[in-house]
Design brief:
Elements (H helix, E strand, L loop, with lengths): L1 E7 L4 H12 L4 E8 L6 H7 L4 E3 L8 H13 L5 E4 L8 H6 L4 E5 L11 H8 L3 E8 L9 E8 L6 H24 L3 E4 L2 E4 L5
Parallel strand pairs: 1-2, 1-4, 2-3, 4-5
Antiparallel strand pairs: 5-6, 6-7, 8-9
Helix pairs in contact: 1-6
The structure holds 5-O-phosphono-beta-D-ribofuranosylamine.
Length: about 200
């Protein structure tokens, strides 16, 4: 059984997709806790209703990034995670935190990295007039939105897209690739070599 801790800041739809896939597909994994940096994160209600332990580490109560990350790390480590999953966790993390979880910290970013790191990715995609947009699951390194890529999904950008319609199309794909990528990790199929992720064949 692998322990997974999921960090959220808001709605938590990616977290929910992972929890549901883990249960439906009977992964050899336990969602050990959902931790939020905001007390008002909508995803906390779902987690509690699903019987998953929740915790809140309020970022604005700490005077520095280092202090917040240390408190967050202590809370996460209570659950002895094999994998920490960032699912709409809207914080820039310090290098010591990222190093502590090297190789066991995953994120989903709503763009086809390395295009459009940072915020407002859908707006950026529309402004640049790209014809294809998407989402990326990657291991987290200290270099923001640039870690080794586990999975990507592409969607078309349509002529009449707004930020919302494009975000919705991307989110549908996020809910497919994130659970899949976490499952690969749980199955022990992912290795990182020279900054690239290798997926071993399914043993079954
Ligand atoms: C997702 O689009 C994710 O890629 C981005 O923030 C959004 C979070 O949505 N980082 P949710 O909280 O998982 O519903």
């Amino acid at each position: 059984m692998k322990n997974i801790v999921i960090l959220i800041s808001g709605r938590g739809s990616n977290m929910q997709a992972i929890v549901e896939a883990a249960r439906a597909e009977k992964w050899p994994a336990r969602i050990a806790a959902i931790i939020s940096n905001r007390a008002d994160a909508g995803g906390l209600d779902y987690a509690a209703a699903a019987g998953i332990p929740t915790a809140i580490v309020v970022s604005k109560n700490y005077s520095s990034r280092a202090e917040f990350d240390a408190a967050l790390q202590a809370e996460i480590d209570r659950f002895a995670p094999d994998l920490v999953v960032l699912a709409g966790f809207m914080r820039i993390l310090t290098a010591p935190f990222v190093d502590h979880y090297a190789g066991r910290l995953m994120n989903i970013h709503p763009s086809l990295l390395p295009s459009f790191p940072g915020l407002a990715t859908h707006q950026q995609a529309l402004s640049f007039g790209v014809k294809v947009h998407g989402a990326t699951v990657h291991f987290v390194t200290a270099d923001l939105d640039h870690g080794p890529i586990v999975a990507q999904a592409a969607v078309p950008v349509l002529p009449d897209d707004s930020e919302d319609t494009l975000a919705g199309r991307v989110l549908e794909q996020e809910h497919i690739i994130y659970p899949r990528a976490v499952r690969w990790f749980v199955e022990g199929r992912l290795t990182i070599e020279d900054g690239r992720v290798h997926l071993a064949a399914d043993a079954r």
